Amino acid sequence: MLGRSAATIKCSNLRLYRCLYSTSPSRAKTQRVKKQVAELPQTYTLPSGERATPLPAFQDASNAPRTLKAKKKGSLKRSKAKLSESSLSEGNATLGHRGDLQPHDDTSAEAMNQPRTQLAREIVENLHRFPDCLLLTRVGQFYESYFEQAKEIASLLNIKLTSRKWGGGRVPMCGFPLLHLDRHLKTLVQQNKLFVAMCEEFPISDSFGETGFERRVTRIVTPGTLIDEPFLNTLENNYLLSIHLVPEKPAIGLAWTDFSTGEFFSKESTLETLQDELVRIGPQQVILDSSLRDSKSHPVLTCLKEENISPYFFSSQGEDGSIQQSEPETAAVSMLSNYLKTILLENAPTLDTPYHETDSTKMQIDAHTIKSLEIKEASYEGCPSTSIAEIEGWQSTVAFFSKRPHLRADLIEHLKQVGDISRIVQRFTLKRGDVSDLLSVKKTIDLWGQIIKRKDDLECKLRTEYNAPSLTLRASPSQGMHIHIAKPKKDSKSIDMDSSFKKIGESASTKSYFYQEWSELGTLIANTTALLAQAEKKVVSNATLLRSNSAIVDEMDVAIGFAVLAEELKFVKPTLTEERHYHVVNGRHPSVEMGLMNSGRMFTPNTIEMTPSSNMHVITGPNMAGKSTVLRQTALIAILAQVGSFVPADAATIGLIDKLFTRIGAKDDLFRDRSTFMVEMLETADILRRATSRSLVIMDEVGRGTTVKDGLAIAFASVHHLVTKNQSSCLFATHFHELSDMIGCTSAWEGKGVFDTVRFYCTDVNEIDPGVNRDSHGLKVARLAGLPPSALEVASKTLAWLNEQDKDKHALPELNDSASL
């Protein structure tokens, strides 16, 4: 309610007037006030800027309440109080949804009909401070919204819109119970990407012992700063990403954090690879410097638009108004940190040093590949590694658990009891943890104790059983896990009759009693609360250690998952080398294989080998013969190998791959006025520009979607560029069987001249063999799809006629080795 509250009165003179508002003041209170009022200055300035004159001293105390009560409805009541200075005014900033964060000096509360109550002033002041946020103000057990925002919120939340008296009129108003906050935040923030300023109320007591409320905005909830809301998907990261650009340079700085877990990363990248980073990171919110607000055609804004991301602008200016210049990565980290301080206010954390990512240590996967292969990275650093030592470390851990099914099963049961420690520790760091979180931390710590105890028990058992006192259980890089032997409620009448109840207060409708047992229980509760507070502090003080242990648990969980997968699907340990070599014997597509197994069918494996002397495979074959499956499984096996997993094959030797590109599938982009063919050409152009000799390129049906001649020319040019310029390992699937003639296919299914590293393969009934398939069997697929017989007959006759007309073979165009296509 917009009622009177004594919450935040700062002027002592006004406090004297306030105590006279009582309709039945005690005699002592009245006499005290009369004396203090007589000592007031004749005039003084109120916090709002108004000039006030004290009331004349009154002769009869009985007239005082009536005299001052009349003043309650006048200017004195209107300017009686001012909001106490809080952390909100320290920043003196205005936060906007998709808007700029600029200094905002206007905190006057007189803009909207001169609000007459403290709550009204608080609402108006907060609306001025946060003009582009939806303001939710807590009033008792409800959150309320007013003015035009109430209309928007009522519409979005499908709740009743009403009105409330405000000054001399009425204003729109809506509200909902406190218990419904999480559900409505999901609608406003997560679904509609809006900013919500949360104004909470805090009880305070004045010098006369009366309790009021102070209200202040403690946090602004945004899509990228969710902490522990129930609707937050704990199985996915909720990243907030900042992007810093260097004027007139291609370098950009990236910094991103999951505020719910405390994970923090940074990286220096380029405009060319920004879209790949956006798809890989998958941010829920992106912030840019406000200087880009009016740059409608900036490449960064174009990339964000292509990924359907609406940026939020933030002023990263220094105190002198200049843009803070630094290395791109450092500047992005600084902007992200400052943004969090502005948004989170009282919940702003101290960020740890971010984990620094570099392209040289991770396989780079472009945006098209992530989408076409239907993969999405988990939080584990986002990319497969290019470090053989790191990969082999993972392989050893997976192998260890693969060979010990009983230990693996035991650990799985223990891991089921472990909570998400990273999120729990983060909640305590932000002072939002509770008892259940402490119990989850305890379970995780207990897990390590149980594991150590089992180790000690086993060691003791072995010493006793085998009479070997010097026996110890050890682990070393050379010997692994090994054994070491040094030397081989009642009514008031009933209560009043009980002497253990001592009445300490009474009014017309209530009585208050002192009860010893309840007092003791209250003391116990207070002590327990203090102990819990100490435990919370201990968790926060050990946050770094707990996060480190949590990371170990996470890695163990992943390794055990890899081991279970390897056992169930018969995966093998691949060999990683520095050489340009990809050799997978009887490789399988893991997802397709599992789908076939569920339907009682077997997957047909295929062998792929690419070396520097045979790095381009041109694959032809009929529709529905398995070309796309072979392409996808080749890419997926490479990814699995470089994340440290075993792979679905009989054997595998894979040279480290620095970048993975695919051009698979067909889609248009009508929203951006791009046809299917245009989308495919953009993807092809990106590959030809960026692929290196250590890259793996997968291309499917390049050149389709236009005339046969145009498409064939584009396909030929792509193969030529990949062979002569990029020199990447490549699988190139096509229905242009004429391409084999243009390249110069020999009887040994090899290319000629500049195409001598090209090898020709064809698919038939899901098997891949050397050769060229000159019949796509499109009519068979059309028949399986159910085309009418009459249409099939016409198609058959037309195909025969076209074959008669096309007797000439395509000749190889005359191109120099250095030709640039």
What does this structure look like?
The structure is a single chain. The chain is α/β, with parallel strands linked by helices and 821 residues long. It folds into five domains: 12-78, no CATH class; 87-221, DNA repair protein MutS, domain I (MutS, DNA mismatch repair protein, domain I, 3-Layer(aba) Sandwich); 239-357, 2-Layer Sandwich (Nucleotidyltransferase, domain 5); 404-487 and 531-569, MutS, DNA mismatch repair protein, Chain A, domain 3; 574-805, P-loop containing nucleotide triphosphate hydrolases (Rossmann fold, 3-Layer(aba) Sandwich), CATH 3.40.50. 40% of the residues lie in helices and 20% in strands. It contains 26 helices and 31 strands. It has a seven-stranded mixed β-sheet with strand order 17-27-28-29-25-30-31, with helices on both faces. The chain has a six-stranded mixed β-sheet with strand order 7-8-6-5-9-10, sandwiched between helices. β27, α22 and β28 (696-700) form a beta-alpha-beta unit. α13 crosses α19, α15 packs across α18 (516-541) and α15 (421-429) packs antiparallel against α19 (543-569). The longest helix has 31 residues, at 435-465. The chain is globular, with a radius of gyration of 36 Å. Mean pLDDT is 75; it is low at 1-111, 318-325 and 808-812.
